[in-house]
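BUG: 3D viewer hangs when loading the predicted structure for this chain

Environment: internal workstation, default settings.
Expected: structure renders.
Actual: progress bar stalls at 90%.

Input used:
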Amino acid sequence: MKAIKLLGFLLLFSVAFSLSAQRNKKVCGEYVYYAEGDVSVNEAKAFALEKAKLQALAQEFGTVVAQSTMQTETHDDAGDHTFFSQLSSVEVKGEWLENVGDPVYSIEFVQDMLVVKCSVCGMARAVSNEIADFSASVLKNGTDLKFADTHFRTGDDMYLHFKAPSDGYVAVYLVDEAPDAYCLLPYAGDADGLYPVKHGQEYVFFSIDKEPKEKAIVDEYTLTSSAPVERNRIYVIFSENPFTKAVDTQLQDGLPRQLSFADFTNWLNKRRARDTHMGVKVMYIDIKQ
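Structure tokens produced before the viewer hung:
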């Protein structure tokens, strides 16, 4: 009887592994980025990498083009006027799980312009219909959606508006140019290591006045830049399944707990590979002195 049970388990594991292997595919992409202005080499490499990943996903899984038409009506002395404007967006139908090997970069200057070529391979899968389409917006110096902005100056306060269609859990990270990853949510004083949210409820994180959690553990953030312009990324991670934040360390007073970008991406890739309900939204922000 034990042998039969064991055989049944092995067969079940083999089927599950086979289905997983069929869902995940190795993809490769390449992108050449022509940087203008005061873009640093690290910034250009990060941008080229993201574009190379998108290129690989688009080639393997295709894209979706969404279009919407807006109608605006005005009235003046000349009569009534109706204007139509069409908005379109393109999204890839796949998601990146993890890198296979290290990205390969080629860096050169052509007529004083920085040119970065990136080639990358990784494991990917078709976008899961199980991922909830949550909303997240970075806010500047205000807690209403009208303050949504991605351009900051030293001394500006940053908040985050969030809303999900289902109960779940959320985490927020900031990645700087080093690159290092800083855990903004769950808060440093939250011993649980995870942040539950309710469906349909609007949240404004990083605000003592708006935060439903105990105010004593809420962290508020004022952005600063030591360079003329610093470009960072905000990662908002949401899943209907419980997940705890990555292992991090308090290295400097006054800054959030942090970990290396490599450790952060390894943690995130593993979580996404195991959780088909996990979605990630990445927003780029810049901070000027």
